[in-house]
Design brief:
The structure is a single chain. With 103 residues, the protein is α+β, with helices and mostly antiparallel strands. The protein has one domain. The chain is built from 2 helices and 4 strands; from the N terminus they run E-E-E-E-H-H. A two-stranded antiparallel ribbon has the order 1-2. Strands 3-4 form a two-stranded antiparallel sheet. A hairpin with a 5-residue loop joins strand 1 and strand 2. The protein binds iron/sulfur cluster (SF4) (2 copies). One iron/sulfur cluster (SF4) binds next to loops.
């Protein structure tokens, strides 16, 4: 299934990863965060997605100026396939949970 990975059939899973900002990136400061280790990263919302994600369209809201690490993330590339496989595994594990009826 992951071999046919395509962004049009994906919930922007890669936009839930930690995105490190490099000095050459030109990302507005209000979209960034600083980790406890002092690394500048894209900020994430309460659900874990990058705050630059356009949630209605599930695409990047700053596509033209997205960070260099995002530009290098290839659709159907090894990291893409990894993150999709992890998400599939997590979804299958959830489906396998027994249903508990609370009286
Ligand atoms: S690059 Fe891969 S993980 Fe990211 S949105 Fe596209 S298909 Fe999903
Ligand atoms: S900057 Fe854009 S492409 Fe990069 S993680 Fe955020 S929403 Fe995704």
């Amino acid at each position: 299934m992951t071999a046919r990975a395509h962004c049009s059939r994906c919930d922007a899973l890669c936009c839930r990863l930690t995105v490190v900002i490099f000095p050459e990136d030109n990302v507005p400061a209000h979209l960034t965060d600083t980790t406890d280790q002092g690394v500048t990263v894209m900020a994430r919302d309460a659900d874990g997605w990058c705050v630059a994600l356009n949630g209605a369209r599930m695409n990047c809201g700053i596509y033209e100026t997205r960070p260099s690490i995002c530009r290098k993330f290839a659709m159907a590339g090894p990291y893409c396939l990894d993150v999709r496989a992890e998400a599939d595994k997590a979804a299958r594990a959830l489906q396998a949970l027994p249903i508990r009826v609370v009286a």
